[in-house]
Amino acid sequence: MSNPGNHPTDGSCIFCKIVAGQIPCFKLLEDDMTIAFMDINPVNPGHALAVAKGHWPTVDVIPAEVLAAVAKTAQRVAKAVIGELKPHGVNLLQANGEGAGQSVPHLHIHIMPRRPNDGVALNWEYTPGDKAGIEAIYKRLKAVL
Ligand code: AMP
Ligand code: ZN
């Protein structure tokens, strides 16, 4: 088991086990802060994950520099997916919390190739919002940024 970056780990987390080499994966690449591997439940061929080596569950708790490293790894994988697999499109997706569909509470970005009419439920029709409602929420957020 290796933990050269001395990052936080959680012994019950499946991605921590992959990072530690305790369970196998189809590893695409690895650097100091991140690892990328194929998703075992691909929505489409080529679905991969860019994963922080450390165990931080969500975007609000991960250090910004680690998040940036995960984004960089996701970009590298996306370039390979786009160049080699030539999908119809690619979504990068990062879920936070069960309400957002997160099933593994260890921060990761999905690199999700898309095919025409693949039925992946990520796209939605535009419905114009109520301006006063948008502004009210905007003011609350602006006040804490
Ligand atoms: P999320 O639902 O956003 O937390 O995504 C978790 C993803 O991890 C899902 O797409 C799973 O298919 C994937 N996954 C879970 N376990 C493994 C594993 N052992 N190896 C590769 N991918 C996995
Ligand atoms: Zn973990």
In short:
The chain has three helices and five strands; from the N terminus they run H-E-E-E-H-E-E-H.
Annotate the secondary structure layout:
Blueprint (H helix, E strand, L loop, with lengths): L13 H6 L7 E4 L3 E5 L9 E5 L11 H22 L3 E5 L14 E7 L16 H14 L1
Antiparallel strand pairs: 1-2, 2-3, 3-5, 4-5
The protein binds adenosine monophosphate and zinc ion.
The site of adenosine monophosphate has 11 residues, from loops.
Tell me what you see in this structure.
With 145 residues, the chain is an alpha+beta fold. The protein has a single domain, classed as HIT family, subunit A, CATH 3.30.428. The protein contains three helices and five strands. It has a five-stranded antiparallel β-sheet with strand order 1-2-3-5-4, covered by helices on one side. The chain is globular and about 50 Å long. The model has no long low-confidence stretch (mean pLDDT 95). It binds adenosine monophosphate (AMP) and zinc ion. Adenosine monophosphate (AMP) binds next to loops.
Which small-molecule ligands are present, each listed once? adenosine monophosphate, zinc ion
CATH superfamily caption? HIT-like
CATH topology: HIT family, subunit A
Strand content: 15-25%
Please tag this protein with its features.
5-stranded antiparallel beta sheet, alpha+beta, binds adenosine monophosphate, globular, binds zinc ion, HIT family, subunit A, about 140 residues
